Amino acid sequence: MISFNYETEFQLQNEPALSQWISNAIINEGFNEGEINYIFCDDAYLLDLNIQFLEHDTLTDIISFDYSLGKQVNGDVYISVERVRENADDYEVSFENEMSRVLIHGILHYCGYKDKTEADGALMREKENYYISQLD
């Protein structure tokens, strides 16, 4: 089950379609959907989590806590709407495109994809682009 929760004024449009899109990606990657919670927040909220749980005193667009069990994907995905908005401007893409990228990025981590090395990052970006193309 995928749920969308809001700690900010922002509200996703088209939650049912996005939920189905995320579910399809999970299945396509050979996993089963468990309980996935998206929490949309602001920079300050996410910075507090970053300091408290990861000991990083930096702004970020996403923090995901992976509770997956075997092939069942479970987790909490925190997204800073402010950071996504700024990144969209920086990368000169639409806010919707950047939000889609962040939504699927967390799921891809749960499916075993990494992004710390250049090669892993390239594969992650390729997968993100593939799934974003499925939204059109």
TrEMBL record:
Zn(2+) binds at H105, H109, D115. It is an enzyme of class 3 (hydrolase). GO terms for biological process: rRNA processing. Its EC number is 3.1.-.-. Keywords: Cytoplasm, Endonuclease, Hydrolase, Metal-binding, Nuclease, Ribosome biogenesis, rRNA processing, Zinc. Its cofactor is Zn(2+). This is Endoribonuclease YbeY. The gene is ybeY.
